[in-house]
Amino acid sequence: MKHLLVLVLSALTASVVFAQPYTADRHLARKVPCQACHVTGDTSVPVRKQNCLACHQSYEVVAQKTKDLKPNPHFNHYGERDCSTCHSGHKPSVTSCNQCHKFDLKTP
């Protein structure tokens, strides 16, 4: 029984280590509490860009951080999109540009 428990715990630990973290996981790892994004405390309400920019400063600052990506997803023909267009807190994020284009961008 003890051996089985060790195997199960090892498998769970391995899946956590190798799983692609969601945006919320990345924030929690940096000690950012849920309320920093969900300012009303209501997790059923989508997080809006102004909540993101409370910590990430401005869309221009974010675009500067991704300036070496080709193309820069934060400097595009749509302008300042809502962050949740691509970034999802509790599910895999998407590269919304790929609805029309085929870019090799990884969206955290």
Automatic annotation (TrEMBL):
Residues 27-102 form the Tetrahaem cytochrome domain. It comes from the Bacteria. It holds the Pfam family Cytochrom_c3_2. Residues 1-19 form the signal peptide. InterPro entries: Multihaem_cyt_sf (IPR036280), Tetrahaem_cytochrome (IPR012286). Its main location: other. One of its GO terms (molecular function) is metal ion binding. It is found in: Cell envelope. Keywords: Electron transport, Heme, Iron, Metal-binding, Signal, Transport. Its cofactor is heme c. GO terms for cellular component: cell envelope. This is Tetrahaem cytochrome domain-containing protein. It comes from Parasutterella excrementihominis YIT 11859.
